[in-house]
Design brief:
The complex is a heterodimer of chains A (about 140) and B (about 750). With about 140 residues, chain A is mainly α. Helices cover about 55% and strands about 0% of the residues of chain A. In chain A, helix 4 crosses helix 7 (about 120-135). The N and C termini of chain A lie far apart (about 45 Å). With about 750 residues, chain B is α/β, with parallel strands linked by helices. Classes of the chains: A mainly alpha (about 140), B alpha/beta (about 750). At the A-B interface, helix 1, helix 2, helix 3, helix 4 and helix 5 of A face helix 3, helix 6, helix 11, helix 12 and helix 13 of B.
Chain lengths: ~140, ~750
């Protein structure tokens, strides 16, 4: 985190800073070739975005004056290691009337923070819990 | 007791005719803000206001923070920039409206100010602009410089073979994104594989989405088949949001979830959704939409699909509805969001309203002009018909050419399309076979390649597709399996193309605002920012791009015209001979009518525009003159090709003082020697609809004038055809051939004609 922040001049990273671009298992863009896919050296995991890439894109977005987009990328970075089922479970819980009380959401926030280190997203879910309570969103809908 | 006919007799018949026009299938609504039918203003809209306390919003648009609903709360928390707000809200709204259309005020400055403005203020400002000003401001404010477009690719049978062929076709026409959806929800996986493979044929870089249920869509994205999502809807009232089964937090969570999987994403919102959902709170469409758009910026999504969308048809029922759709798009780009600017759900049956709706966006440009353009036929569109569809795609290509405007599409030659469709069907068939999902027969494949729509195919039916789709899902097949299958069957280029698309995820470059892929490069608002500052700046058509746009099919050249004429030379030579007899003399026989031929008549050009052989036309003129009791003398003019002067020159050579002038294209005139050139006796200007019988009667009338009679003038009936549109390109080329053969002061020559056989 001590490296200088990326700017719009570094964008697109794949062209201007290819040395920074690595897949989840450390594979660089030049290693992601069709032949490597065919022999099984490259899997779907190598074709996924990383936390680091999302933080890099957040820096670029912020430099471009898009702070809310940057915050979204930072929350997304928090979700990179969260399994699909957990993501869908928390998404479902955030929908109106799914959580029966504030506690359900706070528990999910705690899970995000403790299990996945998802601090930004945990704060976001906590905030939702507060507003949902105030707006009466814990009422069952079906 | 009045029957229908009697009733009709009581009204101006034109109203009955208007009743029959497609326009009258559209239903219009009276402006009624209390019931949600108001485009720009409602007395229930709040006055724009903002009060800040230390480090927070104390009240916004007339609502105190403790009373905020969840939309207000989210906007106040994440959209309002507390540092900019005092300055931005302090500016007179009309001044800001003028800044929007001032080419000297940079986009960046306006984008900065928008971060400090409330929804009501943004709506108030754009309401000051006329439709023209909104279009101009949109052109200046949109985020990415280069315009783009998005297609729908769906079909009524969910047939994957057709999906692949149509995806490849859409890619060839230049769409930057393609979006599919299903008739049967369970067919999503099949659609995804088919469109992914089809869109990899020909070139790489077209982004693809499969609109389905939220969890399913994310899962399909994680398997690598799709590269973006846009059906994350938001609404402008809390009750609509809740009925939509979401909240700003659940949608923002979903937005982050997509980014966490390296998938590009935009939200969807549009005027009329709250009205359709019954929770409009008596607010104007624009104000509610301004809330939606501030919310989207607050959520941190890079862009929006906006401009009515499914609410466009209801929005277009109210006064100013189309202007409102443009205004909300302007707010979207002003808030620095990528804008896929609607122009999708067909809001009218009137083709005139369709053309009017698209034009501002075509000439202003947009990140994605349509979201989406129905690249397939209307009945195959599983989203419902779009503003523009497969039927009208060529009209759109011509509009691009007419206005020299880049609408994101490029004409494609027929043979190329056929090659791509075959290749796509073969590639998908190979994948289905290789993965044990199906074995399409040659007949299925051939029917799809040639088909305009699913009515023409003998291929998979929805139930067959469900089996394929569920197998893909159950077996956990991913894009990597598809890439391998393509390569195994020799579709290496397509395998490479698909891999390049998935590889975009690793860097995440295409998650930034307004990103698409052009010529293998990610282009976004960051490396291709809209830098409009007046003429000579912003997006301009390059010479190469202009060459692409103007190259529509079947354009006429002079050589085409000459070649077409030359085909008729031999047959005309069998029907008539022209013999030049030396300089023409002035006649003294009061019973003669002179026919003045144009320079190219019968020697270079051989048919009228209506397609009559010139020999037949002459035969009718001569026999008509004889029928009228006079006799014809033929003279070739060299000094002019103009109908009036041909006629007048002929008249002055005629003993009767009456002549006929005729051009090779069939335009003719009856003239009299004492009249002014353009003040003739009778003119036959509509040569494309002039029949042989008219030429006969023309001859007879000329004979009557020669006798000093006043015959009934001949009227060539027209049904209002756009004859200029149909014929003027050819006519101008033909006429240029005639004028090119004139000689200054060239003397008229006597011509003896002999009819050799019966011309037909």
């Amino acid at each position: 985190m001590s490296a200088p922040k990326l700017t719009v001049a570094d964008y697109p990273l794949a062209e201007n800073r290819p040395e920074l671009v690595k897949g989840k298992r450390g594979k660089g863009l030049d290693e992601i070739t069709l032949d490597a896919v065919l022999v099984g050296q490259i899997t779907l995991e190598d074709l996924s975005i990383t936390k680091g890439a999302l933080h890099q894109q957040a820096e670029i977005a912020r430099d471009a004056g898009r702070s809310t987009l940057a915050q979204n990328f930072e929350r997304a970075a928090d979700l990179v290691d969260v399994p699909q089922e957990t993501i869908m479970r928390i998404y479902e819980l955030l929908r109106p009337g799914r959580a029966s009380s504030k506690d359900d959401l706070l528990a999910a926030a705690l899970d995000l923070e403790k299990t996945y280190g998802a601090i930004a997203m945990a704060a976001f879910v906590t905030e939702a819990a507060e507003v949902y309570e105030r707006r009466g969103l814990f009422r069952r809908r079906y | 007791m009045t029957d229908k006919d009697t009733a009709r007799a009581n009204r101006w018949k034109r109203f009955s005719e208007w009743d029959e026009r497609p326009l009258r299938l559209d239903k219009f609504a009276v402006e009624d803000a209390d019931n949600g039918f108001a485009a720009f203003t409602s007395r229930h809209d709040p006055a724009p206001s903002l009060a800040l306390s230390s480090n927070a919003v104390a009240s916004m648009d007339g609502i105190a923070a403790p009373d905020f609903d969840m939309i207000d709360w989210f906007i106040a928390r994440y959209h309002i920039d507390l540092e900019i707000a005092p300055e931005a809200m302090g500016l007179p709204p009309l001044d800001v409206a003028r800044m929007l259309v001032d080419m000297n005020v940079p986009r960046q400055e306006l984008v900065r100010l928008a971060r400090g403005m409330t929804p009501a203020r943004l709506a108030e400002i754009v309401a000051h602009l006329s439709s023209l000003e909104i279009a101009f401001a949109y052109s200046k404010m949109r985020a990415r410089k280069t315009p783009g477009n998005q297609a729908h690719v769906t079909n009524a049978k969910d047939d994957p073979l057709q999906m692949a062929a149509d995806a490849a076709t859409a890619v060839a026409f230049g769409f930057d994104e393609i979006e599919t959806t299903m008739r049967v929800a369970r067919n999503s996986w099949s659609n995804a594989v088919a469109c992914a493979v089809g869109s990899a044929v020909g070139r790489w870089g077209t982004l693809f989405q499969c609109s389905s249920e939220e969890a399913e869509e994310l899962k399909i994205g994680m398997a690598g088949f799709t590269s973006y999502a846009e059906t994350v809807s938001v609404y402008g009232t809390e009750k609509s949001f809740i009925d939509g089964d979401d909240t700003p937090w659940s949608k923002a969570f979903l937005a982050s979830a997509y980014a966490s999987r390296g998938i590009k994403m935009r939200c969807t919102s549009g005027a009329g959704s709250e009205l359709l959902m019954g929770h409009h709170e008596k607010k104007s469409l624009l104000y509610l939409e301004a809330r939606c758009l501030c919310l989207q910026r607050a959520m941190g999504v890079q862009g929006t699909q906006n401009g009515g969308i499914d609410g466009a048809p209801v929005t277009c029922t109210v006064p100013g509805g189309m202007r409102e759709l443009m205004a909300e798009n302007l707010i979207a780009v002003w808030l620095d969001l990528e804008c896929a600017s609607g122009n999708d759900a067909r809001p009218t049956e009137s083709e005139i309203r369709v053309g009017a709706k698209i034009l501002p966006f075509l000439i202003a440009g947009s990140d994605l002009i349509c979201s989406g353009f129905g690249s397939i036929l209307k009945y195959d569109n599983s989203f419902n018909a779009s503003l523009l569809n497969g039927e009208e795609l060529e009209d759109y290509l011509v509009l691009q050419r007419d206005f020299e405007a880049d609408g994101g599409l490029t004409p494609v030659e027929e043979l190329r399309i056929l090659d791509l469709r075959s290749r796509a069907v073969d590639a998908l068939s190979a994948v289905l076979e290789e993965l044990g999902l199906g074995e399409p027969t040659p007949d299925m494949k051939q029917s799809v390649v040639m088909a305009s729509g699913s009515d023409d195919t003998r291929s998979y039916a929805p139930r067959d597709v469900t089996l394929i789709s569920e197998a893909i899902n159950a077996r956990g097949i991913t894009i990597v399996d598809v890439i391998k299958a393509l390569d195994a069957r020799g579709f290496r280029a397509e395998a490479e193309n698909l891999l390049k698309l998935v590889r975009l995820r690793v860097s995440g470059d295409y998650l930034q605002t307004s990103a698409l892929v052009r010529n293998g490069r990610v282009l976004s608002a960051i490396n291709d920012p809209n830098d409009y500052l007046g003429p000579g700046t912003g997006y301009r058509l390059s010479e190469a791009r202009r060459d692409e746009i103007v190259a529509i099919r079947d354009c006429l050249t002079r050589d085409d015209v000459l070649r077409a004429e030359a085909i008729h030379k031999p047959s005309e030579a069998k029907r008539i001979s022209y013999r030049t007899m030396g300089p023409a003399h002035s006649g003294s026989d009061a019973g003669e009518v002179v026919i003045g031929l144009s320079p190219a008549f019968g020697n270079t050009l051989f048919r009228t525009v209506a397609g009559h052989p010139l020999s037949a036309v002459l035969r009718e003129l001569v026999s008509g003159i004889a029928h009228g009791g006079a006799k014809a003398r033929i003279v070739r003019m060299h000094h002019t090709a103009d109908t009036s002067f041909l006629g007048l020159s002929a008249a002055r050579l005629a003993g009767s003082g009456v002549g006929i002038g005729i051009q090779a294209k069939g335009t003719a005139v009856i003239h009299q020697k004492d009249r002014l050139p353009h003040n003739n006796l009778e003119l036959f200007s509509n040569s494309p609809i002039t029949r042989l019988e008219h030429y006969h009667r023309m001859g007879a009338n000329a004979a009557a004038y020669a006798r000093g009679d006043l015959p009934e003038p001949i009227v060539v009936p027209t049904r209002g055809e756009a004859l200029g549109a149909r014929y003027h390109a050819r006519v101008s080329l033909i006429y240029a051939i005639e004028t090119g053969m004139t000689v200054d002061d060239g003397a008229p020559e006597e011509v003896e004609i002999t009819f050799l056989e019966v011309a037909r």
